[in-house]
């Protein structure tokens, strides 16, 4: 399992905003400025809350990928919440890390076997304690509405790369594509080309964060290929080999 707080080696890639902000500027816009102009503000490490930030100080306080976790992350000053996106049986984008419901809800079975209406009857569970919350499985739209103008949101695509344009379309409909960072695993040139095609279809105005994991990427030079293809402002590096 990746660590709760995704440091992502962002200390050189992400940094703080100017102390002077424009009147009326949203918090999300201020955070985006830090993200986009990191080299000007090298003293700051941005913090991303993994699975919306269900754990704090080593304790599980909230159900993962829940609105309660998002509110907790915002309250302690996190600048990005990372959430996971899947689809229901009837095609709705929903927020869920696993392909099954057993670990994080009081329902059983595969996410894709439930319609959105059926998923709305499931309640999120706080892992470890087993406490059932009042929160249902969330849609992507519901999650975006909660984060809008308050914090950047990092969408971890648990579907196909071709689903990325649909996710961005939801954010664009809400007028917040610029507050979204989408990420995708990359491991070879074919995957780079597939991601480029999907991002082009999605249109501009959002951020892309490639994921490079050492169980799939064995040549450090591949990072250079990713940089040339996307010029990303951040890359997620996953070290599985050391547990």
Describe this structure in words.
With 243 residues, the chain is of the alpha/beta class. It has a domain at 27-92 and 139-237: TIM Barrel, CATH 3.20.20.70. The protein has 7 helices and 11 strands. The chain has helices spanning 27-36, 67-75, 116-119, 140-147, 164-173, 189-202, 221-230; strands at 48-49, 55-56, 59-60, 80-87, 93-95, 123-126, 131-136, 152-157, 180-185, 207-213, 236-238. Strands 1, 4, 5, 8, 9, 10 and 11 form a 7-stranded mixed β-sheet that branches. Helix 5 runs parallel beside helix 6. It is globular, with a radius of gyration of 17 Å. The protein starts with 26 loop residues before the first helix and ends in a 5-residue tail after the last strand. The relative contact order is 0.13. Residues 1-21 have low confidence and may be disordered.
